[in-house]
Amino acid sequence: MRYVVLALLSIIINTHTKAQTLEETISKMGIELYAPSKSSGNYVKAFQSGNLLFLAGHVSTRADGSSFTGKLGKELTLEQGYEAARITAISLLSTIKNEVGELSRVKRIVKVTGFVNSTPDFTDQPKVINGCSDLLVAIWGDRGKHARSAVGMAALPSNYAVEIEMIVELEGM
């Protein structure tokens, strides 16, 4: 899987240099951003303070509403967890675009916190959250590298496989 990711990164970097916008780069990667759903509680999906955008926890749900549910180490494999984290990253990107208009306003990905619904003996949470981190680096290169936590949880809401929150720095106001 690592070689596939490295090959994909090389293709993306070469594609990105020719693309006019990050959205075009993302589209060439086969990723479609979508209008995010409304918050399901008394909170907002994103909040901007100065040049920082704080994103609430997003779960492993696709644009069509289907989702990755279950525990890593029981119902889900490491590969499925990686894909769940990648899907969650797409949800986060969709929220960023919705909040600030253009992904080109992202100066840097600052912090990613990943929560993995996993059994007590599952210890590959960082490999799962790589699904998010690898995508961010593929899109932004070094500006996509970030501080990160990846932790196991006894349970996540609605039995989602992954929940990720993120902090990004924005260009200008």
UniProtKB/TrEMBL annotation:
InterPro entries attached to this UniProt entry: Endoribo_LPSP/chorism_mut-like (IPR013813), RutC-like_sf (IPR035959)
Record's signal peptide: none
Top-level lineage group: Bacteria
Coiled coil, from the record: none
Domain Endoribonuclease L-PSP/chorismate mutase-like residue range list: 28-167
Protein name listed in UniProt: RidA family protein
